[in-house]
């Protein structure tokens, strides 16, 4: 649709003999002083101005942005494309397939449900490190992956044929965010609109929170829930407030011996401490030009860990050099440079935009670091890691409790608290960065030369983010050195970082559980939340790839690299980490000699083709999907069952019971875990009843196309602690997916799902009470979907993370906050109360109240009343809530 062009912004850009229509941000007063990221948003509004969703006033508000003001102006952002991975992508396609049927029921055509923006899905979340430490591990893991997930993959192949503008990158290719920056990202997008060739900034939202990796390329976008992504695919703009932008100045140079991982862990700690939730972060200053693109991508990737919406770097020659290396055409590079320079989006270190807040990091002050044992922002200087571990261990275990183990090779050894049972080079964050990947290889080579080996109790895995990594490992000769230490290729996928670490060896697992050992994992990922990495492992640490290798040699987190040797060489001399640490000059030399654009061109030339497994899958056809009632992987979604064309009025919430009372930093992993589960859980029981053996359960993440499994898995993380049960277990509470069922005499302990069935039968609505940073972590739509389908009508917390709050609204769940400075505990609420939430009906009149009155009645009849802050932040969100969710809103608007 043509823009109204109120500002006369349309002009033609000539590049390489071709003319492109562009919308010049300079036509809006005040644009020159805007940060890079807001210029991208401004162009987006100019191009999509229609007088309804996007008005002249919206554009003027963005041009007149006040850096110091609190966000209060809603705008509608229309991303150029959508990217997905399979864990979140399968339920997206399930929803779209279900909507095709629902639109027919409402009198419309199924073809109305079709992506209007390009959507690309990379299958990278399903491969598990079942087999490791052998040359055939990769092939075997891929074979097992297809056996487990063939049904899901057939469904995705159907989607690729049924929907326009939808492409699938098959398994065994790479990790979504690495494939995005190495191949899919355009930086400057081109598209024919009404017969006119337009050029505009590449913008992209994704169903994975680490979509922000592309921010390192200057591509604006962030992680959204699957429900928001579906709406974006169907042409719905994303409602947002014009954000505050934090200017982060980089100066100085990274010292020798310090890695990009250390830099990003430092930045993560700084920004989480500063407070950037809901804000954009933008890097600027002289130091930006010296930050390699791979490091920029590493920093952008960790944006969800520090809480910002985006973490942007502007476009410059470093960007173009990277695009050239990764095989982008010279024609595309010429367009990117001409476009960004014309729009004032090219990095000019002399010009400093205005920012809302300012931070600075002198890169020369960064030191080697790790983060853990359960949050990415909990940075620990490597020199203090042993001391910090011994302090943190007190939260997980008491006195030493060593176990003697004899493994399958007949080796005998002893493990204790802190034993590193998993060392994994994994995750898009670092496997996209040649400097740290090659450093790991050089450290392995140096260790082998001195006769060092990984400890026998360490599971060692290597999961690169693209096949190009394997190419440069082979060309540099470092692949064999990593394999000599046990780091064989296990797959191209997220693997350990998403919880697909696979089982520990049986004898290790048995010893850990019998002796209740607090053992550790070290991974080069971005997530180390409780219960995420492996069910046997209590403490998880993020580290650079070379440090992952180093910890496999040390074998314990209770280790001082400065003063304790990793072992002895053939002469009997002690070998310390400093003796084998890679020389950064040598690492760079190896990179220069081992990596070229031909590698990227050859690997990505066939990116959508797939292997013989993929191509031999039977593929259903037709524009609607034929559901299999016996399927335990893909089921028709229930969200539109019996949905009328006109939404029913929203109502106040009365007589509600508390399903869970939770503390601070409850993640979407706690709410909707992605990993494995046992037969005795509600999800396990459902599968057993449907003829599935426990060995074939797969993971929650792989079952996201089946709402029956996912409802039963909601609030079922093995490490979640429901304070309704705090009186149990000497006040420590009960770990796992349990609650009290107030429909039964004495309110006994029950599985969350079972209690919810009883509440639904009794017609009792539910609320959840939470603390600070509720819903941090992954952009997991099932954390909101499961919450809604369990019967939860409202979530009341001290604060929300951005993505989960919007997902709750997208599912028709009301997000409320305690009054500033108050909490459930300060108000004397223990979760046994009955809740009434009054004033919700104002939304039926088009009014979004700032607060609602919440009354909690205790068992003795006494009452606690407070004014809860309504976190429906924009008129668009109010529309979604009134419709019972964003998909219902979209469906009705299409019909």
What can you tell me about this protein's structure?
There is one protein chain. This protein is α/β, with parallel strands linked by helices. Among the domains are: 243-367, Aconitase, Domain 2, CATH 3.40.1060.10; 378-595, Aconitase, domain 3, CATH 3.30.499.10; 653-670 and 721-894, Alpha-Beta Barrel (Aconitase, domain 4); 673-713, no CATH class. Helices cover 32% and strands 17% of the residues. It is built from 30 helices and 33 strands. A seven-stranded mixed beta barrel has the order 25-28-29-30-33-32-31. The protein has a four-stranded parallel β-sheet with strand order 6-5-4-9, with helices on both faces. A four-stranded parallel β-sheet has the order 13-12-11-14, covered by helices on one side. α15 (467-476) packs across α20 (584-594) and α29 crosses α30 (886-894). The radius of gyration is 27 Å and the shape is globular. The mean pLDDT is 94.
Main attributes of the structure:
four-stranded parallel beta sheet, 32% helix, alpha/beta, 895 residues, Aconitase, domain 3, Aconitase, Domain 2, Aconitase, domain 4, seven-stranded mixed beta barrel
**Alpha-beta classification:** alpha/beta
Kindly report the average pLDDT value.
Answer: 94
User: How much helical structure, as a percent, in the residues?
Assistant: 25-40%
The 3D shape can be described as globular
Query: Count of DSSP E strands?
Result: 33
CATH architecture of the domain at 378-595: 2-Layer Sandwich
What profile does the largest beta sheet have? 7 strands, mixed, barrel
